[in-house]
Amino acid sequence: MSVTPVLEPIDAYELWAADYPAHAHNPVMHAEERAMLELLPRDLSGATVVDAGCGSGRYVRHVLARGAARVHGVDLSPAMLARAEAELGSDMSRVVLSEGDLDALPLDGATADVTVCGLTVGHVEALEPALAELCRVTRPGGYIVCSDVHPIGHALGWLRDFKAGGRRYAARHTSHLYSHWHAACARLGLAIEQVREPMLDPRDIPANAHFDRKALEVPVALVFLLRRVGAPVPGSQS
After folding, report:
1. Which of 35, 60, 93, 140 is the most buried (most CB within 10 A)?
2. What is the mean pLDDT of the chain?
3. Do the beta carbons of residue 35 and residue 223 sit within 8 Å?
4. In the chain, what is the straight-line distance between the N-terminal and C-terminal CA atoms, in Å?
5. pTM here?
C-alpha cells in the first residue's frame, strides 16, 4: 500500500489549483459550507469583506451574492489566486486579490466589516497568530466567520488529500482543538457568538463512494461566529 506524500500547503495548492473548483466539491465541504452560510450575515449590502485563504474564490462569490461592496481576497498560493481571478470574471470589479500568509495579512487594520476564513487555519501550525490577524483586520464590533476540519477527523487519520497528474497527495494540516480556540479568543478580545459542528449529509455522498464510515457518526467541521469586542491582551502572542 502506497503512502500519500504530505506537502506543505503552498506546494500542495500550486499543484491542486488547476483542478480546484470555485464551489464546494466534496461532502465535507458541503457540510462546512452550509454551517458557514448559516452564520454569515444574509445582508452584506455596502459591507467590506475580507476572505482570508480565499483559494479559488468560493466564499468571495457567496459574499458578493449577499451584496458586499468590496471584497479583499488573500491567499498564499499565486496559482489559486489566478484561478480565483479567472472564476470571478466580471465580479472582479468589486474584488482585490493579494498574495499573503494567514498570520501576516497584507491589509490595514480594521479593514473588514466581516472577515471570512474557510478551511484554512489548519494549514498554519500556530492558531493564535492567525486568529490575531483575523481580529486585526476586522473592525471593532465586526464579525469573523471561520471554519476548519474537525479535530475528530485528524484523530481518525483523515487527510486533506487530492489528485494531481494521476497521483494522490495531501496538504499538511494541524489539528486545533476547541480549547485552543477558546483560550486564543479570550486573549485576543474575540467573543465566541456561535459554534457549529456539522455532520455529513448522506445525500451528498456519491453512490459507491469509498470513505471512512465513521464520518457519518461524527462532526466533520468546526465552525465559529466570532465578534471582535476589544483589543488583544498585551503579550498574548508571545
Report:
1. 60
2. 92
3. yes
4. 43
5. 0.93
